[in-house]
Design a protein that fits this description.
Helices cover 43% and strands 17% of the residues. The strands form 3 sheets. Strands 2, 5, 6, 7, 8, 9, 10 and 12 form an 8-stranded parallel sheet that branches. A two-stranded antiparallel sheet has the order 1-11. The protein is globular. It has 2 domains: 1-36, no CATH class; 40-259, TIM Barrel, CATH 3.20.20. By secondary structure, the protein is α/β, with parallel strands linked by helices.
Length: 261
């Protein structure tokens, strides 16, 4: 219900805006419009790009063969899709500025070394970039990315981003533990790469309010869940959706999936 006081405030605001030059009116309304803008940009979620002989005990649905991955990405390129990093998407969410039509983000979680051995050359061959979400406590271990590999990929335009220190479930964890999982990885990646990451991927997709707050307090601008979707806005930037890419999705099917409005 509109009170007399609300009516008078709205009337005064209308009169004030009416008295402003046209450029000033547009300027005063632009930030509000930017906050409301929704960007429809698919962020693809992948984990491992490796031959079945190297999959080990990984969940089969999370392992895509290099040949299938290259076929999927090549089909998207032929259909007119191009890539931006999650950091670029975060910047456009913040400003409200649109991205070119058929822009997409490729995210590769967990920091396995097949992301360098197989995925990286395929991406480079297509002129694509990707965002690698790295578990810092596993960097340098067997079957995980090394610091020199991270640095090489970052120099080539890939985004190296935060996926926590240990990638453990947070049920029952203290706020201090959660803060350290985020900030500890942030500090380590900054030391390795010379600049702090600006995006995050929640381990297992878990994002209760205290986890989102830890991400925000660490200065991160965009954080991905495992929720399906492609709509991004400033109000949902710390609980952003992605689209899971499985080994069973054919090149034709992935084009149809992304071409859906």
């Amino acid at each position: 219900m509109r009170t007399r006081r609300t009516f008078l405030i709205d009337s005064a605001l209308f009169l004030l805006l009416a008295a402003l030059p046209a450029g000033a009116k547009a300027s005063s309304l632009a930030p509000r419009a930017a906050r409301r803008r929704v960007l429809n940009v698919p962020a693809l979620m992948l984990h491992r790009i490796a031959p079945s002989s190297e999959a080990g005990t990984s969940i089969p649905d999370l392992v895509i063969s290099p040949a299938r991955f290259e076929a999927q990405m090549s089909a998207l390129k032929r259909d007119g899709w191009s890539t931006v990093t999650a950091a670029t998407l975060a910047s456009h969410i913040e400003s409200g500025d649109p991205l070119p039509s058929k822009s997409m983000v490729i995210t590769i979680d967990d920091g396995r070394d097949d992301g360098y051995t197989y995925a990286f050359p395929i991406l480079q061959g297509l002129g694509f970039v990707a965002t690698y979400y790295v578990i810092t406590g596993r960097v340098g271990l067997a079957h995980y990315l090394s610091v020199p590999q991270l640095q090489e990929m970052a120099a080539a335009g890939m985004e190296i981003a935060n996926h926590s220190v240990h990638h453990l479930g947070i049920s029952g964890r203290s706020t201090a533990y959660i803060n350290n999982e985020v900030q500890g990885a942030q500090d380590q990646l900054t030391a390795w790469l010379g600049a702090p990451p600006v995006t995050f991927a929640y381990p297992f997709g878990e994002h209760p309010p205290k986890f989102e707050l830890a991400v925000k307090n660490a200065g991160l601008k965009l954080a991905f869940t495992t929720v399906n979707g492609r709509a991004h806005s400033r109000s949902t930037a710390l609980a952003a959706p992605r689209i899971r890419v499985s080994p069973g999705i054919t090149p034709r099917a992935i084009v149809k999936l992304l071409d859906r409005s």
